[in-house]
Structures are given as C-alpha cells and as structure tokens.
Amino acid sequence: MRAKTHRRSKGLNGWLLSLPALVLLLIAASGPLLIVVIYSFLEPGDYSGVRWTFSTDAWFRILFQRDIFDGTVSLADANLSIFWRSVKLSLATTLIAFVLGLPTAWFIATRTPAARAVWLFLITIPFWTNLLIRTFAIMEVIRNQGLMNTALINLGLIETPIQVLYTDTAVLIGMAYVYLPLMVLPLFAAIDRFDFKLIEAGYDLYASRMGVLRRVVLPIIRPGIVAGCILVFVPSLGAYVTPRVLGGGKNMMIGNFIELQFGQGQNWPLGSALSMVLLIVVLAALLIYTRVSSRDDPNG
Amino acid sequence: MTDTPAVEARNTVKTYGVGASAVNALDDVSITIAKGEFFTLLGPSGCGKTTLLRCIAGFETPTSGAILLSGRDITATPPNARPVNTVFQSYALFPHLTVAANIAFGLQMLGKSRAEVAQTVERVLALVRLESFADRLPQQLSGGQQQRVALARALAPAPQVLLLDEPLSALDLKLRKEMQSELKRLQTETGITFVFVTHDQEEALTMSNRIGVMSAGRLLQVGTPREIYDRPRNRFVADFIGETNFLVGTVVPGGVRLATGDTLAVPLNGHSGEVTLTVRPEQIRIAADGTGGTIPARVTQTTYFGTDTHYHLQLGDGSALVARLQSRAGGDDAHAQGDAVGVQIDAGTLQVLGE
Questions:
Q1: Residue B293's pLDDT is what?
Q2: Domains of chain A by range and CATH?
Q3: I want to staple B225 with a disulfide (CB 3.0 to 4.6 A). Which of A180, B74, B205, B319 is the partner?
Q4: Is residue B268 located within the same domain as residue B321?
Q5: pLDDT grade, residue B22 (50/70/90)?
C-alpha cells in the first residue's frame, strides 16, 4: 500500500518536473501545428488571413483545379509539377550528397585520430555561417561572370558563359553543398565503428572490390546511410532559401510555393494545407527510417 | 608428401617504412610446407610470423622474394584469387549475416549453385557441430562458437591451404584445449594443409607436424616438435621452447670442458672454441655426492609441483642448473636444500648451440 502511494507521488513528481518542457512543447510545437491544421480547413480572407468558415477547398486545390467559367475539375498541373520538382531535386540532392559523402567520410574515418579531428572540424565549419551567405557564395561561383565561368573562359574551354544560375542545376548544386555535412557526419560515425578486418575477410572469401562494398561494407554501415539520407532529404524537401536565391523564383519548390500562399497569393488555407502535406511526407520518410534501422538490430 | 609443396616462400623480405626507420618484418625467409601438413609458425609477438601468414593470404605484398602455392607463383595475385582462406584472430565474422550466411559467403562469391551452397553449408556446420545455430547472428554466440563459425566459414570453400592467425588466443584455457584437439581432428578429416600462427609453444608442440621458429623477422629453425625441443639449433630456440639450462664450456679433444674442470663427451658437430651447451631439466639426474661420472653440486632450492619437483643446483664454478625429477609413488628420495649432490648428464641429451 505504502509502495503504491510512493509510486503515485513519484509519478506526480515526474509530471510536475516535466511540466515546463510540456508547456514549451505545447506553445512552440503543438500549438502552431494545431493552428496550421485549423487554417487548412478554413476559407481564405479577402486580402490575407482566414475567414472562419469550414471548407475543404484548400485541400481540394492541392491536387485539383476548377475552371472559373464552366466549373470542370482537372488535375492542378502547376502544383503537381512543383511537388514533382521538389521530390526530384531532393532525391537528386540526397544521391549527390551520398556519392560525395561516402568517400569523404571513408577518408576521414581512416585517418589518424589527430588528422581525423581536423577533418571533422573542417566539415563542421560551414555550420557557423549563415545559410543565406553560403547560398550567395555559391551564386558568386556559378553566375555568368562568376568564378566557374570566368575560369572556363580563361582556360579556353568555352566561349560564352554557361547559364547555370537560375536553373534546377543551380538549386541542386546549392542544396548538395549546403546539406553535404549532414550526410558526412552520420556516415563517418558508421564507418568509424566499422571493423576493417571484415574487408580482409571479404577479399579472403573471394569477393571482388565491388563485392566487398556491396555485400559487406554497405549493409553494415546501412544505419549511417539511412540517417544521412534522411538528414539531407528532409530539409531539402522543405528548402526555401536555396531554391529562392539560386532558382531565381521561377523554379519553385514546395517551400517557396507555401511562402507564396502566405504572401502574394493571399491564400493562407492553401498554404496551411501545403505545409501539412510537406509534414506528412517528412513523417513518412522518418517512419521508413525507423523501420529500416530497427530491422538491423537483432536485439531490438 | 614428396610432390609439389603446398606453400613455398622464397627469400621473402617485407620491409616497413623507408630509410633509417625501415624495419624488416620478414628478413629473407624461405620455407617449404608440404601438402596435408599441420605447420606452425612459432615466435614471440613482432617476430614476423603474422606478416608471413598475411603474405601467403595476399593481404601483404613482399618487398622482395616470392610466394608459391602448389608450385604456382602467386606473389602478385590478389587475395580473392588465391585458393587459401584465413581464420582471423578476431574471427572477423560478418555481423549482419547469420551463421549459415557467413559460411555460405565464400561459396556464393565463387559462384556455386544454390543447391551446392546449401549442401556444403550443412556439411560444414555438422563438421564443426553447430547444426542448431545456423540461423543465429554471430553476436548471439559464445567466443568458442564464434571461433567454430570462423573455422567453418574458412573451410567451406575447400581451400588448398587454411591459414590460422592465433585463432585460439581469445579463448580461455579450457576452451583452448578443446579447440586444439578440435583443430587437429578437422585437419585430419579434411586433409587440408594448415598453416597455424601462435606464440604459445605448448600449442605448437602438441598440434603440429612441423614447426618453424621465428624471431626478429628470421626463420631460425624448422623441424618436427621433437627435433625443435630435443635438438634446438641456437640459444633463442632452446630458450623459447620449454624450459632449459645453459652451460658454457670450451671445446677440448673428446668433448667440452666446463669451467668446473669436468669434461662432457658431447658430439661437437664442427663447433670449436667457447660454446654454449643446453640440457632440458628433465634430462638431468641427481645422484649421491661423489658418485663416479657426476659433477659435484649443491642444492640451493627445491620446489614441489605434485607431479614433479624442481631442484635448483649450483655447480662448483657458480653456474646454476635446474633439474626436474618426477615424483614416484611413496618415494621420498628428495634432496634437501643445502645438500651436496652429484649431477649426472647423459652426453646424448646435451646439445651444442650455434651463436
């Protein structure tokens, strides 16, 4: 009996102690999220904001459009192409970051402890700089009179500048650059734990270099690969600054499209519904991550 | 065993580092290992035995010299093209694969059919008595079981030579003894040439057909366990394997004269001048003081070990010897500390050592 009261009071204490965190969570995360959910089921206000009338129109308009004159319903091609571009660019960013990040992480993990600390430090330096500044730096590199084109012209490889800025390629370069460290760090952590004797064991058992990579290395560092891919894919999908600056506003991604609804578009419910869609996609990605990584752990 | 040797190393040199800091891990090592042999490379850590093994496996390329497998020069062949398999000291089992998948790995890489892989895995699992563990992951097994999986994985592709890099060093004493006879059984059953690396002289003596003793990158002596133990060629081999006594003397007509003035009729094998003699403690007998043909000595210490007793003896010139006498039922022939005794050494049990 006493034990029971004791446990109850302990439980109560636990609640009291976690109260500040819960309040913070409510104010900073759940509250705004709830507002967005509510807004997505309302009608847009005359200039901005919302009119408090229930409507599923915003959700409907994500995928479909109604003709103003004859009222026929068709797929919203413009919206779909923005979704498609976002997913496509995010996947491509993830792939580029992986292809560049794996050898980088491998290189760092195979250095001496002292050299390794230096390399890791260099990898994290970009985090200290504002994202906008880093994006403008990339712009300086790829613009028509920028570093890349000037160098290529001076080397005589091209005669007129290659238009990279304000294309999907520019967005891709920018995002790959910005998110690369997020790929390298979890990959490094996974490779650091990797037992290099296993590579010898693989070679010894008649595997080729590719065989060792595919059958031994990649499966074992898979949790790191999945973590890195999620860490790059999720922010890429919601990217706003990079596509805005390097894509020049005409090549929108979901992030820019959402901003448009709250700004010029003056359609807050649609913006809210789009935000929810983005959130759902990200949650789905995270769900896949937990599934895939827990399958690895024989004890979990 | 007279046909082409399974493994041959010719004047193999492996140098690490450059210039003044260069170290010869292998210093002109030549060795011939016959087919079906259980050959042990024995030596202290850093003697080059593991480097030699890694040269045979293909993980290291010799700086100069050649490695031959069944007469074929494989010095430049990558590990995955050599029909040899390794049992690693740390086992190096694939943590993401089950026991069966670990064993199947090499067979799959060789492109064996699904049916053949399944059949071989089953057979090899039975060979190492792990049938019921096929679906376990390596980390769910004990050290001894992991060891057997590592063995099974290396044996499954039926290599021409199995290389074992101190595979028993991580096991406790009881398990190590078990695995020693297990290894011996596997070697006899499969008929595969085993090249076994160890620093444990007892392991080497009990398991091997032949032993190669290494020190500082050099191969000092190759022979059967009995040859290595009874007829060590130099001081290092004599000292490293088992316990032994050293006596210094000068070659005189008819034998070697010790500093005590006693002359031992030892076969000289061409040695002359000042020489070192070695004799195993169990070859020394103790007689009563003054017995003819004995060297006078004094017992300085006795240590009783149950099965035998160690007598520390001091000769007239101050040099020390240890004699090991087996205990006899009901016998109380013990010599007490301080007793004057006569030391009896058969000339045939003495061995003159080279440098």
A1: 80
A2: 2-73 (no CATH), 77-296 (1.10.3720.10)
A3: B205
A4: yes
A5: confident
Supply the pTM of this predicted model. Answer: 0.81
Among B189, B205, B236, identify where a domain stops: B236
Higher pLDDT, B304 or A90: A90
Q: Given an 8 Å threshold on Cβ–Cβ distance, is B80 in contact with A203?
A: yes
Q: Above pLDDT 70, what percent of chain A?
A: 94
Looking at the structure, tell me whether residues B94 and B24 fall in a common domain.
yes
What residues of chain A have any CB closer than 8 angstroms to a CB in chain B? 195, 197-198, 200-208, 211, 215-216, 219-220, 296, 298
Asked whether residue B2 is assigned to any structural domain, the reply reads: no
DSSP B234: B
Report how far residue B291's alpha carbon sits from residue B289's, in angstroms, rounded to the nearest whole number: 6
Q: What is the ipTM of this complex?
A: 0.84
pLDDT per residue over B24-34, tens digit each? Answer: 899 999 999 99
Task: Decide if A204 and B57 are in contact by the 8 Å CB cutoff.
Answer: yes
Residue in B closest to A208 by C-alpha: B80
Asked if A200's CB is within 8 angstroms of B106's CB, the reply is: no
What residue numbers bound the domain in which B267 lies? 243-352
CATH number at residue B166: 3.40.50.300
Task: Say whether both B203 and B255 belong to one domain.
Answer: no
